[in-house]
Design brief:
There is one protein chain. By secondary structure, the protein is of the alpha/beta class. Helix content is 30%, strand content 26%. It has 14 helices and 22 strands. The strands form five sheets. Strands 1, 2, 3, 4, 5, 6 and 17 form a seven-stranded mixed β-sheet that branches. It has a five-stranded parallel β-sheet with strand order 8-15-9-10-11. A five-stranded antiparallel β-sheet has the order 18-19-22-21-20. Helix 3 runs antiparallel to helix 4. The longest helix has 26 residues.
Length: 479
């Protein structure tokens, strides 16, 4: 069987489904191929993000935070609570319900926009043809004028900690834990490791995070990262830096972890061990040998700045190409590519992509860190303002953290914004919009912010760039 489309998208994650919807809205006959099967054995859309990534992890983070807040913080507000308990199975069931609603929502959006959903595994053949193998082994070939590869990424596994059902888990398996483990080990002190570690620490686990690097959150501005580590440690996470896991041994329902650090070799025993050492692009079976699409030295599909591969009419977006593995980056690339196919001339600003770590407090940033500016020799100035001086933060009983703004020394253009604090993931868009419109720090300083809000810290940090903060003493600026 052969079907012809203007656009065929391989993958229905946040890059693929958005690209498909946008293409259909622009009048292009569009099909989207997805192989994902839910744990109930049914085909579902949404890819990693909706099924086992962004959304389910945030559902667990929010539930665990509310539990911790009720148990430990409500008394400060005058709210008396007794015998607060967490039903972990109910928490996981709620997470699953949210996933089902959202994946079903994509199916509804496909119908509403006229996108053809094709179940099965897609492979790009020569001549912009896509072979789809259904779960019962039947094949069909879709012909397309344009193909968008959005096959995503998968967790990286390491030889020293092979996955073992129920004991050694990847980030996907960690979302299915239905009882709070007494001792939880996490390999990897990055975004996923800290988020998952936070969930189970709040629910009562003893959590140890093994980070092979000597630095903590090396991609984050180090002034901010220092405060984040202090906060995580205060919350009870045992963060072992420079700790390389060399082997693991499963003993019944426990796992013994051997690791080395500057002091030598050590062993620790856990009830669960989660491996969160990063993700890698998923290209297995996606490209036929004669497809004409090539991979770079790191295994990503090679593309230009507008996501074109070496084959005219074939594009690749999201985690399978260069750049940060972020759902929103994937979505914006999907929109850009659909617009290009439709004959428009879009641009994507890769310098203004926000990053968020959904611990509590949250960590969020956009643009350059102070370390990056120093390394590049870029003249800069900075303004920092703590949440401890913000009235709304005091009212919220969450005064940890700061807002830091970096601006060019000569032009005053905003080069980066870094936030550690409650709702940082929402507030960072002040910086994203500022950078998108090439704003200066003075532009933010001259903007009227509502009072009382947490975002006033952004206003004050912008004022502090030139030593004009109102609600704290200013440091003397270099002349």
């Amino acid at each position: 069987m052969s079907d012809k489309y203007d656009v065929v998208v391989i993958g229905s994650g946040p890059g693929g489904y958005v690209a498909a919807i946008r293409a259909a809205q622009l009048g292009l006959k569009t099909a989207c191929v997805e192989k994902w099967i839910s744990k109930e054995g049914k085909p579902v859309l949404g890819g990693t993000c909706l099924n086992v990534g962004c959304i389910p992890s945030k559902a667990l983070l929010e539930a665990s935070h509310k539990y911790h807040e009720a148990k430990h913080d409500f008394a400060d507000f005058g709210i008396e609570t007794k015998d607060v308990k967490m039903d972990v199975k109910k928490m996981v069931a709620r997470k699953d319900k949210i996933v089902t609603q959202l994946t079903g929502g994509i199916a509804g959006l496909f119908m509403a926009n006229g996108v053809t959903s094709v179940e099965g595994t897609g492979k790009l053949l020569a001549g912009k043809k896509v072979e789809v193998t259904s779960h019962d082994g039947k094949t069909q070939v879709l012909e397309a004028d344009n193909v968008i590869i959005a096959s995503g990424s998968v967790p990286v596994n390491i030889p020293s900690a092979p996955l073992t059902e129920g004991v050694i888990l990847d980030s996907t398996g960690a979302l299915e834990i239905t009882e709070t483990p007494k001792r939880l080990g996490v390999i990897g002190g990055g975004v996923i490791g800290l988020e998952l570690g936070s969930v189970w620490k709040r629910l009562g686990s003893e959590v140890t995070v093994f980070e092979a690097m000597d630095s903590f959150l090396s991609a984050v501005d180090q002034q901010v990262a220092k405060d984040v580590k202090k906060s995580m440690t205060k919350q009870g996470l045992n963060i072992e830096l420079g700790a390389r896991v060399t082997s693991t041994e499963v003993k019944g329902k426990e796992v013994e972890v051997t690791f080395t650090d500057a002091k030598g070799e050590h062993k620790k025993t856990f009830d669960k061990l989660v491996v969160c050492v990063g993700r890698k692009p998923y290209t297995e079976g996606v490209l036929a040998d004669d497809s004409g699409v090539s991979l770079d030295e790191r295994g990503f599909i090679f593309v230009d700045d507008q996501c074109r591969t070496e084959v005219p009419g074939v594009y690749a977006i999201g985690d399978v190409v260069r750049g940060p593995m972020l759902a929103h980056k994937s979505s914006e690339e999907g929109v850009m590519v659909a617009d290009i196919i439709a004959g428009h001339k879009p641009e994507m600003n890769y310098d203004a992509i926000p990053n968020v770590i959904y611990t509590f407090p949250e960590v969020a940033w956009v643009g350059k860190t102070e370390e990056e500016l120093k390394a590049a020799g870029t003249p800069y100035k900075s303004g920092v303002f703590p949440f401890s001086a913000i009235g709304r933060a005091m009212a919220n009983n969450c005064t940890e953290g700061m807002v830091k703004i970096l601006a060019h020394e000569e032009t005053d253009r905003v080069l980066g914004m870094h936030i550690f604090g409650q709702n940082a993931g929402e507030m960072i868009h002040n910086g994203v919009i500022a950078m998108e419109f090439a704003s200066s720090a003075e532009d933010l300083a001259l903007t009227c912010f509502a009072h009382p809000t947490l975002s006033e810290a952004v206003h004050e940090a912008a004022l502090a760039v030139d030593g004009h903060a109102i609600h704290m003493p200013n440091k003397k600026k270099r002349k």
